[in-house]
Amino acid sequence: MGEQPIFSTRAHVFQIDPNTKKNWVPTSKHAVTVSYFYDSTRNVYRIISLDGTKAIINSTITPNMTFTKTSHKFGQWADSRANTVYGLGFSSEAHLSKFAEKFVEFKEAARLAKEKSQEKMELTSSPSQTRITAKESATDLQSPVTPESINGTDERATPDAVFNAESRPEPNAVPFPHSSTSITKHWEAELAALKGNNAKLTAALLESTANVKQWKQQLAAYQDEAERLHKRVTELECVSAQTSIIKTQKTELNQTIEELEAELKAKEQELEKLKEEVENANQLQEQKDSLAQKLQEKELRNTELETQLSDLEQRLENSQLEGESFRKSLRSLLDLLDGKIFELTELRDALAKLIESGSS
Q1: Around Cβ 96, how many Cβ atoms within 10 Å?
Q2: pLDDT per residue over 168-192, tens digit each?
Q3: Long-range contacts made by residues 233-242, C-beta under 8 angstroms, separation at least 24?
Q4: What is the pTM of this model?
């Protein structure tokens, strides 16, 4: 599957100033996507971040790396291969904690992958050790083989010395005729055989040395080719990583665009509602103004009616006073009329009496 992103977040990227080794230099103008990548082919974890098409972080995670939180929203780690220190500024402490947890997790995974790789290299190097041992044995055979080395002594044994040693009679030994001559011939044959073996071994060693030089040249050529292929693979990995990051950023941008479109639709709906509310508010304001005008007119009418009522009350009061005065005058007139009627009655009675007395 190659190298794939396994975790992404957004942060502001910084690098330590290479001159002062103290100040932070921002490498991005705004928050960018920072991703963990995993290469299943090589069991490698990397931190990659792009600012447009420029790779501002390309750090391979190793077991000896450490991510340090220097504040609630800032963390850093040192990359010895890139000879720099990276710093990340997050928007919240939760994002920083999540990134730090992933760093520890992937660092442990990188350590386990390295241990497995070392075990495989040890198993692979076992036949190589066997071949090295064989080469060492061949090197030992480069020294000339002599009878002294076989007998384990440094003294030079010549046929005469051997003859003298062998021909020295023991106290009870019985000398055999022609024994010294046969022994000398035997040792000469052994020496000739050993010289022949030494010559063969020397020729084999020279051939092995020539083969080793040829193998070293082939190995150097293979190493150069491997280095070139490794650089090419690294370039292709960077391109692949950039492509994956661009795809990830494109997906994130599409999601962001969809979210913004949804928010825009929601805002448009809210704006329509606000327009309706404003129209309703205008209508209510017009109604309020109309009612206020009518209320003002009613208040003026009420004031006029109150004025008229006051006039009527005043007139009524005057009328009541006039009526009371009229009743008093009428009562006085009635009293006077009663007195006059009583006087007339008395006068009538007196006249009647006079008439009766005159008739009698």
Answers
A1: 23
A2: 433 333 344 445 677 888 788 888 8
A3: 237/3, 237/39, 238/55, 238/58, 240/2, 240/3, 241/3, 241/37, 241/46, 241/48, 241/55, 241/58, 242/50, 242/53, 242/55
A4: 0.38
